[in-house]
Task: inverse folding
């Protein structure tokens, strides 16, 4: 599939502004550093590889790439503290808001950078779905062992919790009232069934791949990648699920200090382009818009979804959702401490 996203351009003679770009004319080499959430390692590695080739073909400039991946919340705090990355691929908006407050990212980041890859939350069962899991309500019943990351350390885990919570509030989860009481009742059964709270989304799904648990709550892109790699799993699409919007931003202070703003901003543009969105799709992410026409075999991996919602649509904002569910006195935080002792 990767041959679909770009043509390999010979580096012997590059055409630039109507003439031949010689080695003497080429700009000085530069470096581009990206920090990203753990599960994004493959897609951003592929995007950077393609971008570097295209950028050199267009400008003659060689770009060396440095990458680091870990739990997104922890990485956001490190960037706030001075960790020198040029680009940050985050799991959720509040991790960018922290950097806006610190003066490292502009307040208009959604207009200048914005979202690049989107996904949704799914349930992954083992081959033949031995526990007969059909939807969110089944995960709050006794006898189901769940694997998912800890929302205290993983921004991605907050997506995974908000998906069933939002579905309940939208009256899409059988047996649970569409109010705070219904959410509380559901979460008590759900959290009691979690056998492992890993540090981040990648570690969590690796735990599941090692044979622990009956189901994993994860992102569609992670589930598709596991099946492509030979995993014998069944993806269960809930009747209602959250749309995951993942930000990609330039860290203004860092690129200005290094002098590579043009390259960093060009990467963000490339990620949103048709070529970049095709790379996202190859890695299990849905394109940002329906304007991107995917090859048939790629489009087939994305079934039509039922009821969907975003954080802003269902909870008003990330600030609201985080304070109510994941703050120090948030419902999820308190229930995990009470039930799991974490």
Result:
């Amino acid at each position: 599939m990767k041959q679909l996203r770009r043509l390999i351009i010979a580096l012997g003679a590059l055409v630039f502004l109507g003439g031949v770009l010689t080695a003497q004319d080429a700009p000085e080499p530069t470096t581009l550093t990206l920090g990203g959430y753990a599960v994004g390692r493959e897609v951003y590695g592929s995007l950077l590889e393609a971008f570097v080739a295209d950028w050199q073909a267009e400008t003659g400039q060689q770009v060396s790439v440095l990458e680091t991946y870990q739990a997104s919340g922890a990485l956001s705090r490190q960037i706030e503290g001075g960790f020198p990355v040029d680009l940050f691929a985050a799991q959720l908006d509040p991790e960018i808001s922290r950097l806006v407050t610190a003066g490292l990212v502009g307040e208009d980041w959604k207009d200048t950078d914005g979202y690049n890859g989107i996904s949704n939350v799914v349930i992954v069962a083992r081959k033949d779905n031995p526990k007969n899991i059909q939807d969110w309500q089944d995960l709050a019943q006794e006898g189901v062992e769940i694997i998912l990351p800890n929302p205290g350390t993983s921004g991605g885990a907050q997506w995974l919790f908000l998906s069933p919570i939002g579905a309940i509030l939208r009256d899409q989860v059988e047996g649970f009232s569409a109010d705070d009481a219904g959410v509380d009742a559901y979460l008590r059964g759900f959290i009691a069934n979690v056998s492992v709270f890993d540090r981040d989304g990648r570690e969590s799904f690796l735990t599941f791949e090692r044979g622990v648990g009956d189901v994993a709550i994860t992102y569609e892109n992670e589930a598709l990648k596991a099946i492509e790699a030979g995993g014998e799993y069944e993806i269960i699409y809930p009747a209602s699920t959250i749309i995951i919007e993942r930000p990609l931003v330039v860290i203004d202070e860092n690129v200005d200090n290094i002098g590579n703003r043009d390259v960093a901003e060009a990467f963000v543009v490339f990620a949103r382009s048709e070529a970049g969105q095709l790379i996202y799709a190859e890695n299990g992410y849905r394109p940002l818009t329906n304007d991107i026409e995917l090859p048939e075999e790629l489009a087939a991996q994305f079934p039509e979804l039922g009821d969907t919602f975003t954080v802003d649509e269902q909870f008003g904002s990330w600030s609201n959702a985080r304070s109510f569910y994941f703050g120090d006195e948030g419902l999820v935080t308190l229930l995990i401490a009470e039930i799991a002792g974490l």
In short: Confidence is low (pLDDT under 50) at residues 1-21. The longest helix spans residues 41-59. Residues 119-243+303-340 form a domain with the D-Maltodextrin-Binding Protein; domain 2 fold (CATH 3.40.190.10).
